[in-house]
Design brief:
This protein has 526 residues and is an alpha+beta fold. The chain contains 8 helices and 28 strands. The strands form 7 sheets. A 6-stranded antiparallel sheet has the order 10-3-18-15-28-12. The chain is globular and about 95 Å long. About 8% of the residues have low confidence.
Length: 526
C-alpha cells in the first residue's frame, strides 16, 4: 500500500509528508482476528505471544466464554486477514502513538493492553487509508501466466505482496530457493519490487524476483534479496503468492457497514445454481449518504450489478444501480454514480449479482499461515542465536512453535435478517438459515455466515439557515440578529433582512419556524 501511495501521489495529495508510512502495529493490535480475552484475565500462554500480556483481543465476534481461539498477537496471518482489516476499518498512518520501540518488558507496555492504552484504536492524528482494489494474481493459471501478471502489476501499481518459507538453509549469498518438493508451508511475508530473467540462483534455472524484506535496510546490505522464479511459494502460492493493494486513497467515510468482520473466508461457488444473488441488510445509523459499495469477485473477468433497495425484492424501491466488469479476483470498492440518501433507523439492502464465480462470505474458520506461540525454554548456549530473549535480566529464552502451532480457530458470528440470497425460484431467503456447513463445507455448523458485502457512507450535514455569524453554531448571538429583524415587512426595499429565509420580503412566523428548527445546532458547515 505504501508503494502504491507513493506511485500515485495520493500520500502527499492529502497533506502527508515524507515517505508513505502506515502503521503495522495498529493492524497487529486491531485486525479483528486476535483472540478476545479480557483486560482482567490472568496472562495465559495459549492466548498471546511470549509477551504474556493480558491484551483484550480485537475479535469481537468471539464469545466471551471461549477465549482460547483466534490469532495470537504478532504471530502472523494472511492476505485475506489483512484485506478484511483494511476494508472494514482502513489502515492508519504511522504516528508517534503507533510506534513501539525499545526492548521488553517496556516494549509491550508501549503496545498497550486496551483500545486506548498504548497504541490507541482512534486518534486525532490518524488519517485512514483504504485500497480500492485488492487483487490476487496467483489463484489461477500456469506459473508463466502468474509470473506475467505479477510483472505487469509491479509496473502498474507498485510492490506486490508475496510469501515464502524462511529457514531450512534455503537462503545463501543474497538469493533464496525452496525446492517445490519441500513440505514446509509459508511463514514470512515480503514484497516483490522487480525481477531479472537472467538471474542465477540455487534452482539451476535462470530468473528471480527482487524482493524487499521487512527486517530493515541494514539486513543484507540494503534490505533486499533475490528469490528464484521456481521457489515453492513465492509468486506461485494460490492464496499468498502475489497480491496487489492498489488505488489506495484516504477515506472520507463516516460509517463502514459490514456484517463480515473477517471478510472473504468461504464462497458459494459450489451452489451457484441455488444462490443466484446475494444481499446484505443494513440499518442507517444517521441521516447520511451511501457513496460506495465493497464486493469480492472470486475468478477472472466477472460482470457485476450492484443495486440498492428500500425493500428487498421490490423493484419499485430501487434507489441506485451500477454494473461493470472486474478483471481480477479479489476485493473491489465500487463508487456509485449517484449517492443514495439514507435516513436514520431505516433499512437498506445492498444486492450483488455476479455472472460467475460465486459470492464471498465470512464464517468461523481456521488460519494455517501463522507462526507458533513462544515458550519459556533453556536452550544450549550455542543455540542462543536461534531464539528471542525478551527479558534481558532473565535466563529464560523463547522459541517459536513449541506450545501451540497453527491452525488457529477464528470465531465469527451472524444474526438472522442480516444476509439474504435469491434462490433458483427467484425467492429471497435468509442466509442465516442456509446449510452452509453441509453444502459449502464451513468448518463448523455454527450459523456464523454472512456475505462479504460492505457499504460506505458519509454523514449528511445540512446547512444551518440561522448561523448568521458563521461560527458553526446557531445560538444566542444569532437569535439576537433574528430578533432585530423579526416583524419587518420592508425587506425588498430596506436594509438587508437576515431572517427572511423564505424570500417573501418579510420576517414573520414562517421564518421563525425555520430559525427554531436550527436553533441549538453545533454542526453547521462553515
Amino acid at each position: 500500500m505504501e508503494s502504491n501511495l507513493s506511485m500515485t501521489g495520493n500520500w502527499t495529495a492529502v497533506g502527508m509528508t515524507g515517505e508513505a508510512d502506515l502503521a503495522e502495529y495498529h493492524l497487529d493490535k486491531f485486525n479483528g482476528f486476535n483472540r478476545k480475552g479480557e483486560p482482567d484475565d490472568e496472562p495465559n500462554d495459549s492466548w498471546y505471544t511470549g509477551q504474556k500480556d493480558p491484551f483484550p483481543g480485537s475479535n469481537y465476534d468471539e464469545p466471551l466464554e471461549s477465549r482460547t481461539h483466534g490469532l495470537i498477537v504478532h504471530l502472523g496471518g494472511d492476505y485475506r486477514i489483512a484485506t478484511a482489516y483494511l476494508t472494514n476499518y482502513g489502515t492508519v498512518n504511522e504516528t508517534d502513538v503507533t510506534r513501539v520501540s525499545g526492548s521488553y518488558p517496556d516494549k509491550r507496555i508501549d503496545f498497550g493492553y486496551g483500545d486506548y492504552d498504548g497504541i490507541p484504536k482512534t486518534d486525532d492524528d490518524y488519517h485512514y487509508f483504504i485500497p480500492c482494489d485488492v487483487e490476487w494474481h496467483t489463484l489461477y493459471g500456469a506459473d508463466t501466466e502468474k509470473r506475467q501478471r505479477i510483472k505487469q502489476a509491479v509496473v502498474d501499481y507498485g510492490a506486490v505482496a508475496t510469501c515464502m518459507y524462511w529457514g531450512g538453509g534455503f537462503y545463501s549469498g543474497g538469493t533464496h530457493y525452496q525446492p517445490p518438493a519441500d513440505s514446509r508451508e509459508p511463514n514470512h511475508a515480503i514484497a516483490i519490487i522487480g525481477w531479472d530473467d537472467s538471474k542465477q540462483t540455487q534452482a539451476g534455472q535462470d530468473g528471480a524476483w527482487l524482493c524487499r524484506n521487512s527486517w530493515g535496510s541494514g539486513w543484507n546490505g540494503d534490505g533486499h534479496f533475490w528469490i528464484s522464479y521456481y521457489d515453492k511459494h513465492t509468486a506461485r502460492h494460490p492464496e499468498m503468492g502475489g497480491v496487489t493493494f492498489r488505488g489506495v486513497r484516504e477515506t472520507t467515510f463516516d460509517h463502514i457497514y459490514s456484517h463480515s468482520l473477517h471478510g472473504w473466508q468461504y464462497d458459494t461457488s459450489a451452489d451457484m445454481t441455488n444462490i443466484t444473488q446475494a444481499a446484505n441488510r443494513f440499518v442507517a445509523l444517521k441521516d447520511e449518504q451511501l457513496v460506495s459499495v465493497g464486493i469480492y469477485s472470486l475468478v477472472e473477468d466477472v460482470s457485476y450489478t450492484v443495486s440498492i433497495y428500500d425493500i428487498l425484492g421490490n423493484e419499485e424501491t430501487l434507489l441506485e444501480q451500477k454494473s461493470g466488469t472486474i478483471q481480477r479476483a479479489g476485493f473491489h470498492l465500487i463508487d456509485l454514480d449517484s449517492v443514495v440518501d439514507m435516513y436514520e433507523g431505516e433499512d437498506y439492502f445492498i444486492v450483488v449479482e455476479l455472472d460467475h464465480g460465486g459470492y464471498a462470505f465470512d464464517a468461523s474458520f481456521r488460519v494455517y499461515t501463522a507462526m507458533g506461540i513462544m515458550a519459556d525454554i533453556q536452550p544450549e548456549p550455542d543455540a542462543y542465536e536461534d531464539f528471542y530473549k525478551f527479558d534481558q535480566s532473565s535466563e529464560s529464552y523463547f522459541a517459536m512453535g513449541t506450545i501451540t502451532d497453527p491452525p488457529y480457530d477464528i470465531y465469527s458470528k451472524a444474526n438472522s435478517s442480516e444476509s439474504f440470497y435469491k434462490n433458483a425460484s427467484g425467492d429471497w431467503l435468509d442466509f442465516f438459515n442456509y446449510d452452509a456447513y453441509n453444502i459449502l463445507q464451513t468448518e463448523w455448523n455454527d450459523k456464523s455466515w454472512n456475505f462479504a458485502i460492505t457499504g460506505y457512507s458519509v454523514v449528511v450535514v445540512y446547512p444551518c439557515e440561522g448561523d448568521f455569524d458563521n461560527d458553526g453554531n446557531v445560538d444566542g448571538s444569532d437569535l439576537a440578529v433574528f430578533a432585530a429583524d423579526f416583524g419587518r415587512t420592508d425587506c425588498a426595499s430596506g436594509p438587508l433582512c437576515e431572517g427572511d429565509f423564505d424570500g417573501d420580503n418579510d420576517v414573520d412566523g414562517s421564518d421563525l419556524a425555520v430559525f427554531a428548527a436550527d436553533f441549538g445546532r453545533t454542526d453547521c458547515p462553515r
